[in-house]
Recover the amino acids of this structure.
């Protein structure tokens, strides 16, 4: 029993330690521990589904184990691991590359934990080196590939303004190739594990640096522009701007009451955006921001206005609301706060 426990700890500790390190390095602490656990739980589910499929595929020796591991398992496992990440991207719950890296690595960690439990029950080898390789190589690889897909998808979505096939496929293809190459054993397992342990931290550090630079730039530019728009609305000078001219033009298509609701929606959107950016700045400074009852009330009003304006009205407002992935993410983040 002690031997089994030792093997399992050796095979799991590296990937869990890496995940904890990623969470610790996130200076803005955008992802709650509960959300990380949820992502890991979906990784558990992906591993269970993967093993059920592998058992069915390998039953009766219809396909060789090596062929399955090299050509079938990589795309299948990567696709299963991506399901929850795709959901997070599509529902605008990820705003920056660092978020995608943490969520992706958490999913891969969950997958690796279940996979190592499975192999502990099927492999009789007590060679500690094997489990060290699984811990520092295979397990970390599972987390790294999903994190890589998320990082690439977020980077591309900033250009295309949405998580779609063309933002997800490049990362998925790269993850699949890395996984397949790893399973081909072109180099010794020890060397492969060393390559992963050395390269992945360097990649993640570069991702964190670029993500934080992008976040700081977005905070600075976004804060200034949002503050200017809010000042124009509160002082009544909005009608002299392009936004005001656009709203006045909408009177030809919508009633005066709906256009008034549109202006209120714009004001609420800007206020919430400023609030979200303020929370991020305070977190960066090390302050623990407590939940704000006023924010909940603003979200209730926001939902009421959206319903009052209707889908057609919201589509008409897209040019002035700028519902980019990052804008929607900040509202989601603030709604959870």
């Amino acid at each position: 029993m002690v031997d089994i426990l030792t093997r399992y700890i050796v095979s799991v500790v590296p990937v869990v330690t890496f995940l904890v390190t990623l969470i610790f390095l996130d200076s803005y602490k955008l992802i709650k521990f509960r959300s990380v656990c949820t992502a890991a739980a979906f990784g558990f589910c992906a591993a269970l589904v993967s093993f059920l499929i592998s058992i069915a595929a390998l039953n009766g020796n219809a396909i060789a184990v090596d062929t399955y591991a090299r050509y079938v398992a990589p795309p299948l496992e990567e696709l299963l691991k991506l399901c929850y990440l795709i959901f997070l991207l599509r529902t605008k719950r990820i705003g920056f590359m660092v978020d995608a890296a943490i969520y992706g690595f958490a999913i891969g960690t969950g997958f690796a934990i279940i996979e190592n439990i499975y192999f502990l029950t099927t492999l009789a080898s007590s060679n500690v080196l094997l489990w060290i390789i699984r811990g520092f190589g295979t397990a970390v690889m599972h987390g790294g590939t999903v994190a890589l897909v998320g990082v690439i998808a977020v980077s591309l979505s900033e250009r295309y303004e949405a998580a779609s096939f063309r933002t997800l496929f490049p990362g998925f293809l790269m993850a699949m190739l890395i996984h397949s190459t790893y399973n081909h054993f072109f180099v010794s397992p020890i060397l492969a594990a060393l390559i992963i342990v050395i390269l992945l931290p360097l990649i993640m550090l570069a991702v964190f640096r670029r993500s934080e630079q992008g976040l700081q730039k977005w905070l600075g530019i976004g804060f200034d522009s949002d503050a200017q728009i809010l000042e124009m609305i509160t002082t009544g000078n909005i009608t002299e701007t392009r936004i005001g001219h656009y709203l006045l033009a909408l009177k030809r298509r919508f009633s005066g009451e709906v256009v008034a609701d549109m202006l209120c929606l714009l004001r609420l959107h800007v206020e919430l955006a400023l609030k979200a950016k303020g929370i991020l700045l305070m977190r960066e400074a090390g302050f623990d921001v407590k939940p704000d009852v006023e924010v909940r009330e603003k979200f209730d009003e926001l939902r009421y206005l959206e319903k009052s304006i209707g889908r057609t009205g919201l589509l008409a407002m897209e040019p002035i609301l700028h519902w980019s992935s990052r804008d929607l993410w900040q509202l989601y983040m603030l709604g959870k706060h």
The chain has two domains: 2-211, 236-336. Residues 125 and 157 are 45 Å apart (CA to CA).
